[in-house]
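In the current project phase, the collection of sequences with tokenised folds has grown. A representative record is quoted in full directly below:
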Amino acid sequence: LGVLDKRGMEILRERVTVPIFDAMGNIVGLYARNVQPCEKKDRHRYLVGAHRGVFNGAVAKTSQTLFITEAILDAMALWAAGFRNVISLYGTDGWMCRTKLTA
């Protein structure tokens, strides 16, 4: 799955880790967030491969308002508060990735 590095160490250790599901309920990735103070470049971790499974296409088509968040945990916090019109863009580069997919 890519959870271990070349030395056999877990790359997601000491992080809050969230499974990412596709529309069929299959786990298609993992997102991990370091909650301890650290270098900014090491705060977010993903498994190697395509970032997918967090774009809420159904709500994008049907809702007049959207909450667009940078991080998955931000979207999860809004979802837990009862807001279902949420899309997570996988960081600051996510918007470009999504617009390229739909263009």
